Amino acid sequence: xxxxxxxxxxxxxxxxxxxxxxTVDELGHATAGYTYWKFGDYRLNPENGILPQRLAAxxxxxxxxxxxxxxxxxxxxxxxxxxxxxxxxxxxxxxxxMLFASRSxxxxxxxxxxxxxxxxxxxxxxxGGGLISLVLYVLSPTVxxxxxxxxxxLAPSLFFAAxxxxxxxxxxxxxxxxxxCSSLAAAGLFLSKMSAPLILPIAATLCVVRLAxxxxxxxxxxxxxWNLTGRGAQAAGLxxxxxxxxxxxxxxxxxxxxxxxxxxxxxxPVPGHFGISWATVLQKPSPEELVTTxxxxxxxxxxxxxxxxxPEGMPVGWSFDVMRAFQALRSGGxxxxxxxxxxxxxxxxxxxxxxxxxxxxxxxxxxxxxxxxGYAHVWRFSQTRAAFLNGDYxxxxxxxxxxxxxxxxxxxxxxxxxxxxxxxxxxxxxxGASDGGAGAGAESGRGGMSYDTIPxxxxxxxxxxxxxxxxxxxxxxHILPTYPPLFVLCGACVxxxxxxxxxxxxxxxDRRWRTAFAGITAALLLWLGLDAWxxxxxxxxxxxxxxxxxxHAYRHLVDSSLDWGQDLRAVRARIDSGALAQPVYLAYFGxxxxxxxxxxARLFHGxxxxxxxxxxxxxxxxxxxAGMASALSEELRRHPDYDPxxxxxxxxxxxxxxxxxxxxxxxxxxxxxYCISATLLQTLESSVSNCFGPWNARYEGAYQELAKVVxxxxxxxxxxxxxxxxxxxxxxxxxxxxxxxxxxxGRLAAYLRHREPETTVxxxxxxxxxxxxxxxxxxxxPPAELGRDVPREIEDAAERKxx
Length: 803
Prior knowledge:
53% of the residues lie in helices and 9% in strands. It is α/β, with parallel strands linked by helices. It has a 5-stranded mixed β-sheet with strand order 7-6-11-13-12, sandwiched between helices. Helix 6 (95-138) runs parallel beside helix 24 (483-489) and helix 10 packs antiparallel against helix 23 (454-467).
């Protein structure tokens, strides 16, 4: 029966994502995994586990796909997202088939975790308890949402549970088999997620619990069996087992990276680097501090300072262009004193103890470069992350974030089953029940059920202890490892079912109450099943009634808890059915391609998305000088949104560099249907303007200034537009427009946050019908809100902390 349930579960996983578009993280994971196998290069996405990424890419190796281009700039700069977008959507590959194949491989991990939950519960509570735990697992919206996705969330859930169980079994019988099983599970965990070190305090706690019991530790090796009786001898035996773990984990980590330190394949046609420099992830002092330290002259500053900020005025930190500029300056532009100060600046160890440790391990090459870089990257960017919760915005998160997500994204029926399970466990009989199918405790006579469930509680509590104060409050998926221990413990509900565990049930409650509790248990399981059926296939956007259901979910949580770019197909279906009046404007949060999925809508804001790069506001094209007129006419025919009366061109040899500018009508927003991703509505993502959080007075001032500057571009008069365009370079205009676009969207989003959407697309994309009058109020009227200046508050707090 368990095998049949798991087969149906696998089918349900794949069916639920068949019509779901690519979520944000899947693009990077699939692309990185493929390049690991195909090129033996580990520059892409090293901050996520190599094991799930390799698994996701296995089916792609067997398919006829055009590989990513290794001569592309995105490959050299380790921009896996741009490279992946080209690979999936612009190179003639079948993106749907590729994505489904990768999801099919990742769903195998979900089936494996289901089998582990069933087996563990069966050991504790017998066959009936195992089936209850398995049913709870396969009907969990959290599992159904994340199980088939090409991410690194399900794999650590599997290996955290597997490692905890294997360590616990090893602590009660020390054999070559138990030690190797535990070592392999731990190695799988370290190759799956950078949160793997959390297993160390969990395992240490289990060792302390085991050593506190005055029981011999059976040992088997080389055909001999004996017992370790003293705590010192047992600790020594476990220390040897721990050393084996270290050897196996280190060996398999090196094997996963080809027994090579360098992350970059030897002989690669294009030398490359990580997407973000080592100096950045190790939090080296900023390049601005280096400028001050070196006391550069004005001429020297002119060689580096223009690179220190983006065209929009945002600091770039230790970008590779900045590093190359400083290296060039060091080679031929510094005095001897400045050169010595430069060398000392670079040689200085990082200020953080964690960063110093990682830097030391990297210098000694004790682990592969990509593996170490991944840990450094996660450490650096786990300290702050833009997050949203119930209308509030923070970079350092909330201690209540994950408990709150657990409360509103877990079915209410499951909470009821947890209460029944706890009631059963509270009075479960001691070891020795002959018909209850109890696990190791009953078999060895060590004690009651409370002892046998210790590893489940240690895993559950230990993970929560670390999770609650963490700062990456961006998705419910991060608490996925806390669910399997609960599913196993809920197997205790078998006590309430007829024939489930007769001895246990008799000890818990008398026969009259057993019948009532059996009915309640059955009703809760039925409710759980109906809940899963009712929300098919939109499990990622599942919210229970405490949050008011999916219609108001966007006011509670966004990002991967609700809107992860998964509903482009559903938007297309709504448009094609005529349910959404034209014209349709789409502001999409995700890495999928609306064009690929056939969404007939105008993209007016996206984050990150790349479809808009096909037709940017200012487009530069190279055409032959001899046939310039005909070439430009063909370009305008293929891209009718560009203004034929506004073309700038510069000749270079036999080529002409032409600049096309979009028509004013293509840049303005007009009456129509606006489909806006929930994550964008809450202004959680900002690429150039740092427009994060509520609309405030500073944003309003910047918006009004930018609106004045770009006003000529929105004018229909060719003369007005032409006169304005020549006042700035194309790069300057593009930077200004990108800033204006983000602030314009931020002001519109502030207006819409105070208005209920007409409907939603599966809860993740909000639909508004806006008239010209609505847009005028939103973009030109008094601001709908003037709230806190969250970025400025964060900057001020950081300055006070530094002082």
